[in-house]
Amino acid sequence: MSYYQYSVTLRYMCRTFPQKCSSFYPESTNPALVCNIDMILDYMNSGIFAIIPKSCYPALGLTAGPGDVCMMDSTKDHTDEAMRECGEAMFRILTDKFAGIFLKNTKFLLSDTPTIADFRFAPMLIYIKIATKLPSRLEEYFNDDMGNLPLFLDTIKKVIDFAQPKWKI
To answer: Residue 100 and residue 78: Cα distance in Å, rounded?
Structure first.
């Protein structure tokens, strides 16, 4: 499943099970919020998610894809430099867009209640923390705002256990 399909799947679940999920994607009651949710999901798919494989997969022993620096013998020596560069770019995106805009005035991404954009983004912070230290607002968002949702941290515990030894603290 590609990054793009996750967003489609989340939308599908909200539409298929509105009695349980409509508050996370309120198409019929809050179309303005749905536009914000869609914009954030599209921004993630075309922006930060493209950097994740290059910035943290090599640290986990995973391949980043054909033609990537860590995959070619002639450029493998530059893997750490490429990961650092991607981590710096990711930190700028997290600071400018996510902390600076999407979480500036709200508890969750452009909302005071969690949406599918949060359920899509927050788990990715587990891997992003391999590439860069999170801005303080994103640490608060992950640990407190999302962390206080029922079952959120329990659901992703195994992923945290897998990635945490590589986190930039």
So the answer is: 31
- CA 155 to chain CA centroid, Å, is 16
Is the entire prediction scored with pTM above 0.85?
yes
Nearest Cα neighbor of 116 from 20, 17, 16, 24 is 24
Q: How far apart are CA 41 and CA 27, in angstroms?
A: 15
Q: Is 61 exposed, middle or buried (0-12, 13-18, 19+ CB in 10 A)?
A: exposed
CA distance 147 to 108: 12
pLDDT single digits (tens) 113-137: 999 999 999 999 999 999 999 999 9
Give the contacts of 135 (CB within 8 A, at least 6 positions apart).
91, 94, 95, 98, 99
Domain boundaries, the chain: 3-20+27-166
Work out the widest C-alpha separation in the chain, in whole angstroms.
55
